[in-house]
Amino acid sequence: MALMQFWSSLLILGTVVFAWKYLEIRKARNALHNIAGPPPASFLKGSISQFFSRDSTDFQRRLAFDYAPIAKLYSMFGRPMLYVSDPKALYTIMIKDEPSFPEPDSFISTNHLIFGRGLVATLGETHRKQRKLLNPAFSINHMRHIIPIFYNVAHKLRNGLMKQIVGGTEEVDLLEWMSRAALELIGQGGLGYSFDPLVEDTHNEYGDALRALFPNLVKIPIMRLMTPYLIRLGPAAFRRFVLKFVPDGGVQSLRYIADTMDSQSRAIFEKKKAALLQGEEAVLQQVGEGKDIISILIRANASTSEVDRLPEDQIIAQMSTLVFAATDTTSNTLARILQILAEFPDVQEKLRAEVIDAHAGESLTYDELDQLPLLDGVCRETLRLNPPGVFISRVANRDTILPLAEPIIGVDGSLISEIPVVKGTEVIIGILGCNARKDLWGEDAHEWKPERWLAPLPEKVTKNTIPGVYANLMTFIGGKRACIGFKFSEMEMKVVLSVLLTNFTFELTDKPIVWNAAAVRYPTVGRMDNKPQMPLKVRLYEGAKV
Ligand code: HEM
Ligand SMILES: *[C@@H]1O[C@H](CO)[C@@H](O)[C@H](O)[C@H]1NC(C)=O
Ligand SMILES: *[C@@H]1O[C@H](CO)[C@@H](O)[C@H](O)[C@H]1NC(C)=O
């Protein structure tokens, strides 16, 4: 009897949830019925596999360029999503109405489980407090202090590469070297910790754990959607205990990775704290001489007002968060720049002349390095056309409206100047779309032309308030959750490029390089191979031939 009651209650509950979801989806569909977009592959799975798989590059480009700045696509069970690259709509999402468009629950809670409560795992007031304490460590003033650390690492990278090309010219996987360099740069500049001497093959437990994180995350797509519920399963120690019994290789690897990152971060943190307690002498003897972000945070925490202080756990969580956010993004961008310079030997030569003339390969100050025009143009143009992440997601947490910079034409032919968005609708920030639309950037918008940054930008770009923190681009997005490390990344790239171009030239091999769609895009040789790599011919440069 009791069992019958149980099943019938469950049936009623199921029906109610189903009906509620159905009404929700119908409301969202009605609101967006007039918006055009590519047809979904199926009702059940919508456009998810077209949009989110390794081969999605073409689909993502079509979505960015072949539709109006607002396009509709579908997630599961016919639920519509919006792809947005209109500047005014983006401004509304990122800045004006930012509280209505938080990151998806599954994003926040997956990050929480992996990194702890760092920047990418918090919302609202906690996030604001963390940013406030972290901001000074990413200020231009601080960049001025850490440029010598960057040069130090870049020179080790150069020496490491030298040993690879004993014959004067050699094919080298530059992605691997850029990954090692990016990890070491955030290690020394961010944590005051050295992961990798950049000499030969070395292994570091923390570094290995970080590298294994992404490949293991993509193995458990369903688990990731369940994280908002997992996180409510009681305290961390209990969740860890439960996870031990999940019979899944991916989950077990992730548990090991998260534990390793946490214990390694904790050990580094304790060392920094001890050095600060011992006084200036001990601080100066560490890697980075106490100029790293973590030492700054510990000092800032001690001197800020009581309400703005952060518990130790949140500072420790920032460490893996920063390292993770800093490495693949920067290393893949560097690999992309080197590939493009190999494709455009004339630009490579001009850029080499610029950096050698300025002695940028030895050691410049922040301001000197930042002012090299072609170096700046090459970085900007590559980040414009090849943002490592071509989109990110937000979810409307209430019914609201997105006004458009310019009206679009609806499916029925009428003009639309604002779009109603129903609570629960996923909104995709069209980073690539906004960076490279012809109606904003001009007819040559899809071409790689670093010179465009040496002249005034088109008025359409500058007069629209594109809400990007960097160069009217959405690559690092904007607003409260913009990339905190964009200057850090830009300067890393400028130092590494200056040093490498001073002593090497880069040429293409005949291997076909393919860029694969992912949260951070990565290159492989051909479509079938799984190993991320960027083979290029590296040749010693020994001065201009006379
Ligand atoms: C080319 C290099 C990089 C690109 C394109 C990039 C891009 C981005 C983007 C698009 C976001 C927003 C993600 C979201 O809201 O879902 C972000 C956030 C973040 N980035 Fe970067 N990033 C780069 C390098 C770096 C570096 C070098 C660091 C650290 C030194 C860093 C640290 C962070 C952090 C901590 C966040 C989270 C900020 C917050 O939520 O408050 N990034 N980045
Ligand atoms: C920040 O200060 C608070 C209050 O003094 C202290 O409890 C906390 O441990 C400090 N956090 C760090 C990371 O030093
Ligand atoms: C790199 O190039 C500079 C400038 O041409 C030169 O002075 C230096 O010796 C080179 N470095 C190495 C390690 O060959």
TrEMBL record:
<protein>
    <recommendedName>
        <fullName>Cytochrome P450</fullName>
    </recommendedName>
</protein>
<dbReference type="InterPro" id="IPR001128">
    <property type="entry name" value="Cyt_P450"/>
</dbReference>
<dbReference type="InterPro" id="IPR002401">
    <property type="entry name" value="Cyt_P450_E_grp-I"/>
</dbReference>
<dbReference type="Pfam" id="PF00067">
    <property type="entry name" value="p450"/>
</dbReference>
<dbReference type="GO" id="GO:0016705">
    <property type="term" value="F:oxidoreductase activity, acting on paired donors, with incorporation or reduction of molecular oxygen"/>
</dbReference>
<keyword id="KW-0349">Heme</keyword>
<dbReference type="GO" id="GO:0020037">
    <property type="term" value="F:heme binding"/>
</dbReference>
<dbReference type="InterPro" id="IPR036396">
    <property type="entry name" value="Cyt_P450_sf"/>
</dbReference>
<comment type="pathway">
    <text>Secondary metabolite biosynthesis.</text>
</comment>
<keyword id="KW-0479">Metal-binding</keyword>
<dbReference type="GO" id="GO:0004497">
    <property type="term" value="F:monooxygenase activity"/>
</dbReference>
<keyword id="KW-0560">Oxidoreductase</keyword>
<dbReference type="GO" id="GO:0005506">
    <property type="term" value="F:iron ion binding"/>
</dbReference>
<feature type="binding site" description="axial binding residue">
    <location>
        <position position="483"/>
    </location>
    <ligand>
        <name>heme</name>
    </ligand>
</feature>
<keyword id="KW-0503">Monooxygenase</keyword>
<comment type="similarity">
    <text>Belongs to the cytochrome P450 family.</text>
</comment>
<keyword id="KW-0408">Iron</keyword>
<dbReference type="InterPro" id="IPR050121">
    <property type="entry name" value="Cytochrome_P450_monoxygenase"/>
</dbReference>
